[in-house]
Amino acid sequence: MGMLSKIVNWARIKSPWILHFNTGACNACDIEIIASLTPHYDLERFGVVLKGTPRHADILICSGPVTRQIEDRLVMIYEQMAEPKFVVAVGTCACSGGVFNGCYNVKGGIDTVLPVSAYIPGCPASPKAIIDGVVKLLGSLKEEPKKKNSVAVSQ
Amino acid sequence: MSLEENIKNELEEKFPFLASAIVIKRQRRIFVDIPQENFAEVFSYLIMKMQFSILVAITGLDEGNNMFGVMYHLCRETGQMCIARIHIPRENPLIKTVTSFFPSAEAYEREMVDLLGIHVEGLAPGHRYPLPDNWPVGEFPLRKEWKLEARHDIKENPHV
Amino acid sequence: MYKSGDVRIPLGPQHPALKEPESFMITLRGEKITSINIKIGYNHRGIEKACEERTYIQDLYLIERICGICSHSHSTCFVQAVEEIAGLEVPKRALYIRTLVAELERVHSHLLWLGVAGHEIGFDTLLMYTWRDREIVMDILAQLTGNRVNYGINTIGGVRRDISDDHKKDIMKAMDTLEERTKYYVGVAQEEVTIIKRLSGVGILKYDDAIKLAAVGPTARASGVKRDVRHDDPYAAYGELDFKVITDTRCDVYGRTVVRLLELMESYKIIRQVITNLPEGPVTVKAPRKIPVGEAVSRYEAPRGEDVHYVKSNGTDKPDRVKVRPPTLANIQAVSHMLEDRYLADMPIVVAAIDPCFSCTDRMISIHNLDNRKKMTIPWEDLHVQSIEWHKKRGIDFSGLNRKLRKIKIK
C-alpha cells in the first residue's frame, strides 16, 4: 500500500461518512439509526457523520426490505457513491426480508440488489447493535481495505 | 332511545327500502347496506342532512360470489360512525367518484383502482398508486384469486 | 400546468430533509411554489394482502411493523377490531396497560417530532436535547415491554406482560423528569425568537380547509378542530380518565408545535392516572384460534392522528380482509394545500409539521395547481427585474455595484 492510500484509508476509518436510505422499512430501524447518532449513544465519537448526498458518503446504511418501487433508486444511489463504498444492512428486514417475505411488492433483503458488507440483525436493530456493526466494519477495513468481506454482528 | 336508534329510524323513514339493511353493530357503529342505484341520494342525505360530514376512509373488498364491496366510512363530529356499503358486480365494477363531496377521497379511490381493479367514474387522471410504475397492467393483488406464488413472472423477474 | 418561466425541481426519493423515501415534483415561479406533486408508494409492501394469508397472531406482529414509530397504535387498533368480532371481554388491567404503553408511545413520538422539527429549521441543538430526553421514555418502554420499538405487548384478548411495582416507581420518576424537561421546551417555544419567527405564519391550514381536507390529529387540532378519538370514541381505558383535548387557533406550524408540547403534558397526566388507578386482576383472556364470522371498524388516536382499521373475518384462523387507514394518508392531502404560494425553503418544515409517516401511508399522489389565476408567462428579463425589486424591498440593493461594474467595463 502506497503512502497516499495509507493516509486515505486512515482518514476513512477515522471518519467514515454515512448516508442513510430507507428502502421500505417501517421507520423503526430509521429512528434507531438516528438515535445512535444523538447524544445518548453518540456514534459521532467514532467520527461517523451523517451526510445528505451519496457523493459524499463512504458507507450506505440501508434499512428495510427492498420494495419494487425503490429498487431502481437504490441502485442509482449506490452508483453515485465514490469507490470504495460499503453497504450496511440494518435490521432483520434489510438482512433477509424479515416479516415482509412473501409480500408481493417486496424483493427481499438488501443483498438481492447490492453487495452488503455488514449485516446488523434485530427488529429493530438496537443502537448498541448498530454501533457494534459500524465499529466491526471499520475494524475489517483496517486489515484489508480492498476486500469487501462480510461481517455478521450478533445483537 | 339511543342516538344510534334515532339515526336508524330517521334513515328508515326517509328511505323505506333500507328497512332491513341497517345494522347497529355496537355503540357508535352503524352499518348501512345501500342498493347501488340508490347510493347517490342516500349518501348525499347522510352528508348534507345527518351531519356525517367527515370521510374517514373508503374500503374496497373482494366479497367472493363475483361481488366487490365498497364501504364509505363516514363520521360525525361527535364520534358516531356510519359505514355505507354498496355491492357491485365483478363483471362491471363501476362506481362514481365522491371527490366532489370530499377532495380527500382521491387517495382512497386510487387505491381501489390499483389494488382491486374497480373503475371509478369521474376520477381525474393521474399517476398510478400505490403500486410501482412498472407493475403489469391487469394484475390486481387484492383480488382473492390473485396469489403471488402463482405469479412466477412477477416473483422471478427482476425488472417487474 | 407548466409554463415557460416556471422551474421544475424534482426532490427525492433520497433527500437530506426527511428520512423516508418520497418524491416531490415542485414547480416554482421565482422562489414560490405554484404546484406540488407528491408521489409516495416507495414503501408499499403489500401488507393488506399479506394479512389475508397469515393467521391472526402472525398478523398482529406484521401489523405492528406497518410503522415503527406508531407500532402500538396499529397493533392496538387491529386487536380491538378482532376482539370486537370475537366478542371477547378484555380485562380492565390489560386495557390500562394498553393505555399506558399508548401514552408512552405518544411521548416518544412527540419528542421525536420536536427534534425533527428543530432539525428542519436548522436548530440542531433542539434535536440533540429532545432525543437525549427521549431515551428516558425508550428505557421505560424497553423495561416494560422488552423492546425499544415494536413492543409486541398486545395479544388478542389482552396484553402479554404485566407491570410490577418497580415498573410503576420507575415510570413515576421518569414522568417527573420528563415533565420538568417539557416545561423547559414549552418555555423555549414561547420565548426563543428563532422558533417563533421561523414557524409563525408558515404552512397555514385554516379551520374550514382542515375540515374539508379531513385533516386529523395535531394538524387538525392546531387549526381549531376539536377532534380526538380518545375523547369522541373512547377505547381502552380513556373513557375513565381525565384529560383535555388540546387545540390551538394559530393554524400554522407554530400552532402544531404548541399543540404537541401541551399534549405531552396531558400524556404525563394520563400516565400518572393510569399508574395510580391500575386495577388488579388478570391481564389476558383466552382467545379462540378461529375468529367467528363478522366485521368491525376500530379507531385509535395515534400520535399523528386517527388510525382506522377495518377487519372482516370468515370463520377461519385467517382474516378475510384487513384495511388500514393510517393518519398520514389523511394529512398528506393537506400538505399541498399548505404549501401553495409558499416559499421553497418552507417545504421541509411544512412537510415535517404533519409528522409524516410514509411507511404507514406507503401510497398516494396528490396534485395541486394554483394556476386558476390569470395566465402569465414571465420572460427572463422581467424575472430579473422582478428579483431586483424583490430584493430592494427587503433592503438589499446591488444597483450601485452594477453601475460601478458598468463603468469599469466602459473604461
Secondary-structure content class of chain B: alpha/beta
- Report mean pLDDT of chain B, rounded to a whole number: 86
Give the overall form of chain A: globular
Form type of chain B: elongated
Helix and strand sequence of chain A = HEHEEEHEHEEHE
Low-pLDDT segments, ≥5 res of chain B: none
Please state the structural category of chain A: alpha/beta
Strand content of chain B: 25-35%
For the termini of chain A, the CA-CA separation is 34 Å
- Give the oligomeric state of the chains in this entry, treating copies of one chain as homo and distinct chains as hetero: heterotrimer
Overall description:
Chain A is 37% helix and 19% strand. Chain A contains five helices and eight strands. Chain A has a six-stranded parallel beta sheet with strand order 2-1-3-5-7-8. A two-stranded antiparallel sheet of chain A has the order 4-6. Chain B has four helices and seven strands; from the N terminus they run αββαββββαβα. Chain B has helices at residues 3-14, 39-49, 105-116, 152-156; strands spanning 22-26, 29-33, 54-64, 67-75, 81-89, 94-96, 119-121. In chain C, strands 1-2-3-9 form a four-stranded antiparallel beta sheet, with helices on one face. A three-stranded antiparallel beta sheet of chain C has the order 6-7-8. In chain C, helix 4 packs antiparallel against helix 5 (124-145), helix 4 runs antiparallel to helix 13 and helix 6 runs antiparallel to helix 11. Chain C is globular and about 90 Å long. The A-C interface holds A 19-32, 34-35, 38-40, 51-54, 64-65, 67, 69-70, 73, 77, 93, 98-100, 102-106, 123-124, 126 and C 13-16, 19-21, 41-47, 49-50, 53, 61-62, 65-69, 71, 112, 115, 127-128, 131-132, 134-135, 138, 147-150, 357, 359.
List keywords for this structure.
heterotrimer, A: 155 residues, alpha/beta, two-stranded antiparallel ribbon, 8 strands, 19% strand, B: 160 residues, two-stranded parallel sheet, 4 helices, elongated
